[in-house]
Design brief:
Layout lengths: L5 H23 L52 H6 L1 E10 L9 E7 L8 E2 L5 E7 L2 E7 L6 E6 L5 E3 L2 E3 L3
Parallel strand pairs: 1-7, 1-8
Antiparallel strand pairs: 1-4, 2-3, 2-5, 5-6
Length: about 170
Protein backbone atom coordinates (compact mmCIF):
# COMPACT_ATOMS: atom_id res chain seq x y z
CA UNK A 1 0.00 0.00 0.00
CA UNK A 2 1.26 3.39 -0.93
CA UNK A 3 1.23 6.30 1.39
CA UNK A 4 0.53 9.87 0.41
CA UNK A 5 3.31 12.31 1.30
CA UNK A 6 1.87 15.59 2.52
CA UNK A 7 5.16 17.46 2.06
CA UNK A 8 5.16 16.84 -1.74
CA UNK A 9 1.52 17.83 -2.14
CA UNK A 10 1.91 21.01 -0.16
CA UNK A 11 5.04 21.99 -2.15
CA UNK A 12 3.30 21.38 -5.48
CA UNK A 13 0.24 23.28 -4.34
CA UNK A 14 2.34 26.23 -3.23
CA UNK A 15 4.09 26.47 -6.63
CA UNK A 16 0.81 26.25 -8.55
CA UNK A 17 -0.87 28.92 -6.43
CA UNK A 18 2.13 31.24 -6.73
CA UNK A 19 2.08 30.97 -10.51
CA UNK A 20 -1.63 31.66 -10.64
CA UNK A 21 -1.27 34.71 -8.41
CA UNK A 22 1.53 36.13 -10.57
CA UNK A 23 -0.29 35.52 -13.87
CA UNK A 24 -3.71 36.76 -12.80
CA UNK A 25 -2.83 40.50 -12.73
CA UNK A 26 -1.01 40.24 -16.08
CA UNK A 27 -4.05 38.67 -17.74
CA UNK A 28 -6.53 41.09 -16.25
CA UNK A 29 -4.58 44.26 -17.06
CA UNK A 30 -6.05 44.38 -20.59
CA UNK A 31 -9.64 43.78 -19.46
CA UNK A 32 -11.73 46.68 -20.67
CA UNK A 33 -8.91 48.08 -22.79
CA UNK A 34 -9.91 49.76 -26.02
CA UNK A 35 -8.39 48.84 -29.40
CA UNK A 36 -5.94 51.40 -30.82
CA UNK A 37 -7.72 54.27 -32.54
CA UNK A 38 -8.03 54.24 -36.33
CA UNK A 39 -6.25 57.04 -38.19
CA UNK A 40 -8.52 60.04 -38.57
CA UNK A 41 -6.91 61.44 -41.72
CA UNK A 42 -8.61 60.66 -44.99
CA UNK A 43 -6.91 58.14 -47.20
CA UNK A 44 -5.30 59.31 -50.42
CA UNK A 45 -6.30 57.59 -53.63
CA UNK A 46 -3.96 54.68 -54.25
CA UNK A 47 -2.96 54.26 -50.59
CA UNK A 48 -4.17 51.62 -48.18
CA UNK A 49 -6.08 52.43 -44.99
CA UNK A 50 -3.89 52.55 -41.91
CA UNK A 51 -0.73 53.38 -43.87
CA UNK A 52 0.79 56.84 -44.24
CA UNK A 53 -0.27 58.76 -47.32
CA UNK A 54 2.40 59.06 -50.03
CA UNK A 55 4.14 62.39 -50.11
CA UNK A 56 3.95 64.48 -53.22
CA UNK A 57 6.78 66.60 -54.49
CA UNK A 58 5.52 70.13 -55.03
CA UNK A 59 8.68 71.27 -56.86
CA UNK A 60 8.23 71.88 -60.59
CA UNK A 61 9.89 69.29 -62.77
CA UNK A 62 12.36 70.62 -65.34
CA UNK A 63 11.56 70.16 -68.98
CA UNK A 64 14.24 67.95 -70.52
CA UNK A 65 15.63 69.23 -73.79
CA UNK A 66 17.49 66.67 -75.92
CA UNK A 67 21.15 67.50 -76.67
CA UNK A 68 21.22 70.42 -74.22
CA UNK A 69 24.82 70.56 -72.87
CA UNK A 70 23.67 72.47 -69.77
CA UNK A 71 21.20 69.74 -68.83
CA UNK A 72 22.31 67.61 -65.87
CA UNK A 73 22.89 63.97 -66.70
CA UNK A 74 21.24 61.35 -64.54
CA UNK A 75 19.84 57.88 -64.86
CA UNK A 76 16.52 59.53 -65.71
CA UNK A 77 17.92 61.59 -68.59
CA UNK A 78 16.50 60.05 -71.74
CA UNK A 79 19.07 58.78 -74.23
CA UNK A 80 17.89 58.10 -77.73
CA UNK A 81 19.10 54.89 -79.39
CA UNK A 82 21.05 56.88 -81.98
CA UNK A 83 22.94 58.78 -79.22
CA UNK A 84 23.67 55.56 -77.35
CA UNK A 85 24.86 53.77 -80.50
CA UNK A 86 27.04 56.74 -81.46
CA UNK A 87 29.14 56.28 -78.30
CA UNK A 88 29.47 52.51 -78.69
CA UNK A 89 31.44 50.27 -81.02
CA UNK A 90 31.06 46.62 -81.97
CA UNK A 91 34.26 44.57 -81.83
CA UNK A 92 34.04 41.16 -83.44
CA UNK A 93 36.28 38.55 -84.95
CA UNK A 94 37.37 34.96 -85.08
CA UNK A 95 39.99 32.94 -83.19
CA UNK A 96 41.62 30.04 -85.03
CA UNK A 97 44.74 27.89 -84.75
CA UNK A 98 47.57 27.83 -87.33
CA UNK A 99 45.67 25.23 -89.40
CA UNK A 100 42.63 27.56 -89.65
CA UNK A 101 40.48 25.48 -87.29
CA UNK A 102 38.20 27.48 -84.96
CA UNK A 103 39.09 27.57 -81.29
CA UNK A 104 35.89 27.24 -79.27
CA UNK A 105 35.80 28.70 -75.74
CA UNK A 106 38.91 30.83 -76.23
CA UNK A 107 38.91 33.65 -73.66
CA UNK A 108 39.16 37.33 -74.65
CA UNK A 109 39.77 40.11 -72.15
CA UNK A 110 40.88 43.73 -72.18
CA UNK A 111 44.30 44.07 -70.57
CA UNK A 112 44.38 47.88 -71.01
CA UNK A 113 41.72 50.44 -71.79
CA UNK A 114 41.39 54.22 -72.11
CA UNK A 115 37.85 54.01 -70.69
CA UNK A 116 36.64 52.25 -67.53
CA UNK A 117 35.89 48.60 -68.27
CA UNK A 118 34.59 45.79 -66.05
CA UNK A 119 36.99 42.91 -65.57
CA UNK A 120 35.14 40.27 -67.52
CA UNK A 121 36.16 37.71 -70.11
CA UNK A 122 34.36 36.96 -73.34
CA UNK A 123 34.27 33.44 -74.84
CA UNK A 124 34.28 32.38 -78.46
CA UNK A 125 31.46 30.19 -79.74
CA UNK A 126 31.82 26.76 -81.40
CA UNK A 127 32.93 28.47 -84.65
CA UNK A 128 35.63 30.48 -82.83
CA UNK A 129 33.65 33.73 -83.28
CA UNK A 130 33.13 36.48 -80.74
CA UNK A 131 31.30 39.81 -80.62
CA UNK A 132 31.15 42.53 -77.97
CA UNK A 133 29.83 46.08 -77.63
CA UNK A 134 32.13 48.59 -75.93
CA UNK A 135 32.46 52.36 -75.56
CA UNK A 136 34.67 54.22 -78.00
CA UNK A 137 38.30 54.28 -76.89
CA UNK A 138 41.69 52.63 -77.14
CA UNK A 139 42.04 49.03 -76.03
CA UNK A 140 44.48 46.18 -75.73
CA UNK A 141 42.56 42.99 -76.39
CA UNK A 142 44.18 39.73 -75.28
CA UNK A 143 43.12 36.21 -76.25
CA UNK A 144 43.93 33.00 -74.35
CA UNK A 145 43.29 29.34 -75.18
CA UNK A 146 44.53 26.19 -73.47
CA UNK A 147 47.60 24.78 -75.22
CA UNK A 148 48.21 27.98 -77.25
CA UNK A 149 50.41 31.05 -76.76
CA UNK A 150 48.46 34.16 -75.72
CA UNK A 151 48.18 37.01 -78.17
CA UNK A 152 47.40 40.73 -77.80
CA UNK A 153 46.20 43.34 -80.26
CA UNK A 154 45.92 47.13 -79.98
CA UNK A 155 42.53 48.50 -81.05
CA UNK A 156 41.58 52.15 -81.55
CA UNK A 157 37.80 52.47 -81.81
CA UNK A 158 37.51 56.24 -81.36
CA UNK A 159 36.69 56.89 -85.02
CA UNK A 160 35.14 53.60 -86.18
CA UNK A 161 31.66 52.16 -85.70
CA UNK A 162 32.94 48.58 -85.98
CA UNK A 163 36.27 46.86 -85.44
CA UNK A 164 37.31 43.45 -86.76
CA UNK A 165 40.07 41.62 -84.89
CA UNK A 166 40.88 38.06 -85.97
CA UNK A 167 43.46 36.03 -84.06
CA UNK A 168 45.57 33.06 -85.21
CA UNK A 169 47.05 31.35 -82.17
CA UNK A 170 50.23 29.27 -82.27
CA UNK A 171 50.68 26.12 -80.18
CA UNK A 172 52.89 26.46 -77.09
Amino acid sequence: MRYFRPSLVSGWLAVTLSAAILLLPACSSNVGAQPPPEPTAQTQPGSKPGQPAPTTDARPRPTLAPNDPAQPVSNQTPITPSEQNASQVKISGRVTNAAGEPLARARLAFSQSSVPMPEIAYLTNANGEYSMIVSRGEYTLAVFADGYAAQERQLDTRTEAQAQADFVLQPQ
